[in-house]
Write a structure and sequence with these properties.
The chain is of the alpha+beta class and 355 residues long. The chain folds into two domains: 160 residues, 2-Layer Sandwich (D-amino Acid Aminotransferase, Chain A, domain 1), CATH 3.30.470; 158 residues, Alpha-Beta Barrel (D-amino Acid Aminotransferase, Chain A, domain 2), CATH 3.20.10.10. Helix content is 24%, strand content 28%. Helix 5 crosses helix 7. The longest helix has 16 residues. The structure holds 2-OXO-4-methylpentanoic acid (COI). The site of 2-OXO-4-methylpentanoic acid (COI) has 6 residues, from loops.
């Protein structure tokens, strides 16, 4: 195990006292430390935990020019006894390596990933606050650090994990615009990967949607714009009558861990779930005839976020207020598992060893 070899350099003074934990803006305040590990000469070198701070990287590094970068989003939770948990971390580990492979980057070793996370969460344990609304958002990422602007995969990389105490991702109401012109991903592309550029490519269309009063774009298939895919930071679910619908994942859509957990959770509660291609016209029709009861997004950062309305071309639709809404019920049940407030029949919770 690398526990012996992981070098830890602690900050001289923690900045935790300067943080207002009741008023956090998502992903803007980071903990005292970060995990770093370099790849060079065909292998990953000795990992370290060091004080959080700026990096020195050659301006010609390929990450800056070709976006050779992948990332993950994970969360840690603390229960009332001070025990710390992550949610299905193995899924994130597998996914970052699937993303890395697609971007011609080397796989990261599993023991480095888990030992790095465990040690970092121990060192920055004070930053993880108990309570259902609190979590520590964990952002592992890999960037191509080799200098030189030739357009080919780098031979040097840095794997980093940073952490940010978090509450809600969206602080206000969420309405979405269904895409009819721009696309997020295409067949055979990198849509399934958590590649940095997948997100940058959404910024411009999302800014246009924001000007019309929407917070997110729901992407449709690039070929026809007839089928629903995902929203940029979340997978999307629709409740038509009492059935929950979500699109199947494929090489264009992120295989969301919250998404697949909600599918299992909903089924275990007797809700009928259909994972199948969803036509935009079907959703419009359901909105018009009143059978569209709910929409919500699902993702690590957002958890389950109700969508109050949507737009398509020039039309806008508002969803009804439901007393027995599935979204909030599933969110509560999922968070109870994540924060060790409920039994975990699925085996999703991972307890972080306290060292
Ligand atoms: C996550 O839910 O972790 C995401 O990847 C969304 C992020 C882009 C804020």
């Amino acid at each position: 195990m690398m526990t012996e070899t992981l070098k830890i350099t602690k900050v001289k003074e923690s900045k935790i006292d300067q943080v207002d934990f009741s008023n956090l803006n998502f992903g803007t305040v980071f903990t005292d430390h970060m995990f770093v590990c370099d790849y060079k000469d065909g292998g990953w070198k000795s990992p370290e935990i060091i004080p959080y701070g700026p990096l020195t990287i050659d301006p010609s590094a390929k990450v800056f020019h070709y976006g050779q970068a992948v990332f993950e989003g994970m969360k840690a939770y603390k229960d009332d006894h001070g025990d710390v948990f992550m949610f299905r971390p193995e899924e994130n580990f597998n996914r970052i390596n699937r993303s890395a492979e697609r971007l011609a980057m080397p796989a990261f070793p599993k023991d480095y990933f888990f030992d790095g996370l465990n040690q970092l969460l121990n060192v920055d344990n004070e930053w993880i606050k108990p309570g259902a609304e609190n979590s520590l958002y964990i952002r592992p990422f890999v960037i191509a650090t080799e200098y030189g602007v030739s357009a080919s995969p780098a031979t040097e990389y840095r794997f980093i994990i940073i952490c940010a105490p978090a509450q809600a991702y969206y602080s206000g109401e969420v309405r979405v615009k269904i895409a009819d012109k721009f696309s997020r991903s295409a067949d055979g592309g990198i849509g399934f990967a958590k590649a940095a550029g997948n997100y940058a490519g959404q910024f411009y269309p999302t800014e246009l949607a924001k000007k019309e009063g929407f917070q997110q774009v729901v992407w449709t298939d690039a070929n026809t714009h007839e089928y629903i895919e995902e929203a940029g930071t979340m997978n999307v679910f629709f409740r038509v009558n009492d059935t929950l619908l979500t699109a199947p994942t494929n090489d264009r859509i992120l295989d969301g861990i919250t998404r697949k957990s909600l599918i299992e959770l909903a089924k275990s509660k007797g809700i009928q779930v259909e994972v199948r291609p969803i036509k935009v016209t079907e959703i419009l029709e359901a909105a018009r005839n009143g059978s569209l009861k709910e929409m919500f997004g699902a993702g690590t950062a957002a958890v389950v976020n109700p969508i109050l309305g949507f737009g398509y071309k020039d039309e806008k639709f508002e969803l009804p207020k439901m007393d027995d809404a599935y979204g909030p019920m599933l969110k509560k049940a999922l968070k109870a598992i994540q924060t060790n407030q409920a039994e975990d029949p699925f085996g999703w919770r991972y307890e972080v060893p306290m060292i």
